């Protein structure tokens, strides 16, 4: 079978297209030079390996020799894995939005030979349907316009470029206080579906960043509506079809408002954020459901998602054998053939197994129905039997890329869960994944890489990589006290500032200052499926200030918030990560445990901290308080009567030391 240039790539998504008859180029200087040499417009196709509609368009159009021939004649065709180049994806998604269209994948953009966007869309069918023009007609129309009506193209380019440049400008400061934060949380309640969880309507996305914000606001204020918004959402997500009840792990989103029918892909970043949120909620509720889902999800992660020697793979596909969800769904007959009659009946009642299925003739296992409550401990063996049989099916494709930001997100979540549940094996897995990032994902210039795949790590880091890597390093520093983690965090923060900070307008650019293939550097401030790069960096810098006591980190965190604060009043649900960072600066809570790291009383104090539900807090463990920087409020604090002691510091003031773990937990819980 013949192949195109993509056969030399490592990205699983690009390799999916290596045998297309399309003469694909990977994004890079050679492809852009070819566009300029041939004076052909660029057809840019952006997607990712787990994307269902990317597969559909590939089968319909990119594997069709006639359509491929048209593409080859009229365009320089470039494929981009959006997970490898999130900066390019963000830029051209913004351009599409400026054209008045909804974004998504596959992203199909038409660019000048200078890579400037002038028209685009997402999925185009091979023949006209769904109210969409046929892809061949689109290709011919765009090519004709490019060559015969250059003034129109120049007009579009100028209009879009001007709007993109405006989007890259920081809106500037406004005065924030905790009243604005708590009012913002209350305003977000208007969006919540208190019956089925999530935000109202369909499709339903988990949105763990938004619900983390509401949860922390509840812990500060005691507003029970904020608590209920989070718990009703987690309850329904954990029992719905969006959760894999046999193998563990959460799917991308639900296509309906009841969490029944998921889009079946599993993404590392969703599971990392939900693992963290569930851990926070469990510490307050003690919910056995949350605990079970945490343990099952970590089990899935360590069993099915390790890659490149111990880091974590990016995603599992939605499709297998060319059919979405086939791997995860069942018929009643399949289940009856594997279980005895009594067990199959009990299982069917609990998991909504129907004779004709609950979705397209098959059954999505879920428990969001009247008979779905109660304990299923007696079905553990039955579930193991079904899982073993499912494992014999054709598996969905796995994208084994190791992405620095998504891995760091999971490392931080694993460290948090390991501390809460006293699981040193989880912590060891987090440390091992971190080691992969710091040994195999460092470029020759000493800066981190964004992606590692098949041993190759040559994609430049973006802002999110730095921000999440700093948070992961600080999480490991808190749980292990290893000084090398704090040193890494400091080095990364300085690198990010040197290469991503906007000296003129404030805020951090997505791409580095030496990125030569991005026509406009975007500046992310709105949260999406993951918190924004600037919101995450602001939190990372705030936590770095708490860990070191050095004011330069606080100053940088404040500068990030000031760069975007003016947009917050109109965009609160989409800027909660910046508000989370602000609360760390406005109401800093620091806990310092002083004493030998293996001291029994010190470990009891640590367990008390780990079990106490708190708004964002910084934990430090030191043998002697003089090891803390001079600017730290607990500098110089010491043992009490030879025993390990805990100091609770709010702002610049620390309470009297406490040595009794129960008393310590009670003091932590005080508002």
Overall description:
With 671 residues, this protein is an alpha+beta fold. The protein is built from 24 helices and 21 strands. The chain has a 5-stranded mixed sheet, with helices on both faces. A 4-stranded mixed sheet has the order 19-18-20-21, sandwiched between helices. Helix 9 packs antiparallel against helix 10, helix 13 (332-338) packs across helix 14 (341-351) and helix 19 crosses helix 20. The longest helix has 18 residues, at 150-167. The protein is globular and about 85 Å long. The N and C termini lie far apart (67 Å).
Keywords:
4-stranded mixed β-sheet, 671 residues, 24 helices, alpha+beta
What is the compact description of this entry?
This protein has 671 residues and is α+β, with helices and mostly antiparallel strands. It contains 24 helices and 21 strands. The chain is 48% helix and 11% strand.
Q: Considering DSSP H and I runs of 4 or more, what fraction of the residues is helical? A: 40-55%
Terminal Cα span? 67 Å
Largest sheet: 5 strands, mixed
β-strand number: 21
